[in-house]
């Protein structure tokens, strides 16, 4: 009888713990996108939305997407723990100020491809510092590329091989090299074996990071995100899932 009672107590304790875990609030993600930008960028965004919705169901977080960039305001942003820019960036002073305030007060950001397109520091000085660099050049047409993982121990790289071939993408180069900034931690780089990369516009060599984080913030930028082939690679999909779950975690 005593053993039976103890067993019941043990089962009750497990049930209580499971209930407490189930009641924990999931993190909330808001993805911004545009439909009036380059078609390849729209194609990426329209595939990214169902990809992240499916992930949200699997990993138990809330995911919302909006094409209204005026939602980039303090009242809306405070409801979300992670912000995504899928194929565009804020265009008004009010939107930019709201995003800066959000990030400086503990928000998290995942930016794809064109989200990092700033070719002149004067355009948005704070964002140039936040990103750690500005756009310098690109490859064209979109091509697959071998990517090297710089830090396999980083949570965003969990379970990834040391190299993999990314689906066709337009690849950017940067100036200065993000790696030269002490606040930047590079996570993924174009392998030198890719060069020359491109035909009409060609990247001929050099250290070209693809994915990095500014350690002053909870953020991750990746150059991945051009066209409708991005989600065709399971290894890359794992990276994207890791990245979002890392950004949605409590720890930085």
Descriptive overview:
This protein is α/β, with parallel strands linked by helices and 252 residues long. 32% of the residues lie in helices and 24% in strands. The strands form two sheets. Strands 2-1-3-4-11-10-9-6-7 form a nine-stranded mixed sheet, with helices on one face. The protein is globular and about 45 Å long.
Unreliable stretches: 1-23
Q: What is the spatial order of strands in the main beta sheet?
A: 2-1-3-4-11-10-9-6-7
Major beta sheet summary = 9 strands, mixed
Helix share, percent: 25-40%
Rg, Å, rounded: 20 Å
User: What's the tally of helices?
Assistant: 6
Structural class comes to alpha/beta
Give a count of the beta strands, DSSP E runs of length 2 or more: 11
Shape: globular
N/C terminus separation? 49 Å
How would you state the average pLDDT, rounded? 91
H/E series = HEHEHEHEHEEEEEEEH
As a percent range, the share of strand residues is: 15-25%
